[in-house]
Write a structure and sequence with these properties.
This protein has helices at about 1-25, 35-40, 60-65, 70-90, 115-140, 175-185, 200, 205-210, 220-230; strands at about 50-60, 95-100, 100-110, 150-165, 170-175, 195, 210-215, 235-240. With about 240 residues, it is α+β, with helices and mostly antiparallel strands. A hairpin with a 2-residue loop joins strand 2 and strand 3. Helix 1 (about 1-25) packs across helix 5 and helix 4 runs antiparallel to helix 5.
């Protein structure tokens, strides 16, 4: 028990040190890249594979863009992207893309879906911890607003597409149900909430399923409206019950 606590504290200290140095230097300490993901996708072009897709989206970025100087907002998003990227790669994930104030990640699952979902769920919890205890205390110390996030996850098939003839230089992306539904799921999340889709929930271990509750009541109508524009699809989503 003590070693786990020490490891977590060491992780948070490293995050705080990186964030502090990034703020002091007005820039990131590492180069953010999607190259590792691109190499993974290059091996699977024009085929189907199975992945867990994770969206991590900053809450309230529109308000921040109104209230903050552009340099401050840029630095917040850069630091957020840096720390989320490091968390994702440490849990075996790949950074698919950066989209404004969101990070989209893949966790390959063709060989062991249950393990990939467990890793991605552990990563999501780690991200919440990194933001709460690593990033935000340093932001507050530098008179910047603390941030919260929404996290959406889904598991399923993905088709790899290449936009061009030269695989080495062409843009590569994925399409499929998992990435489409993960985006919609994320929009349902509240501050620092994790939402998972039916497929991801189905592949979870029984002990992990107990940590989730089907999304109903206040958000049910919003989800029904989203699905109404998707051929009236009936699809269940679940939210993580914080311990």
């Amino acid at each position: 028990m003590h070693s786990c606590v020490t490891m977590d504290l060491n992780l948070i200290e490293k995050v705080q040190t990186r964030v502090s140095n990034s703020l002091k230097n007005n820039g990131l300490l590492i180069d953010l890249s999607i190259e590792h993901c691109k190499k993974y996708l290059q091996r699977k072009i024009n085929t189907k594979t199975q992945v867990v897709v994770m969206y991590v989206d900053i809450n309230g970025s529109t308000k921040m863009s109104r209230d903050l100087q552009s340099s401050e907002l840029s630095l917040i998003i850069q630091i957020f992207s840096q720390e989320i990227s490091l968390s994702i790669t440490s849990y075996g994930g790949y950074i698919l893309k950066f989209v404004g104030d969101a990070v989209i990640a893949l966790f390959p699952s063709e060989h062991n879906p249950r393990k990939a979902i467990k890793n991605s769920f552990a990563c999501a919890n780690n991200i919440l911890d990194v933001i709460k205890n690593g990033i935000n205390p340093i932001f507050i110390r530098h008179a910047l607003p603390p941030i919260t996030v929404k996290i959406g996850m889904e598991h399923g098939d993905a088709t790899i597409l290449v936009y061009g003839k030269n695989v080495e230089y062409a843009h590569i992306d994925i399409i499929g149900f998992s990435i489409s539904i993960a985006s919609k799921i994320t929009s349902l999340a509240s501050q620092n909430e994790i939402i998972v889709g039916e497929n991801a929930y189905h592949h979870m271990e029984d002990d992990d399923k107990k940590l989730f509750m089907e999304l109903t009541s206040e958000k049910e109508s919003k989800w029904d409206n989203i699905m109404r524009y998707n051929d009236d699809m009936k699809y269940r989503v679940f939210k993580y019950l914080k311990k």
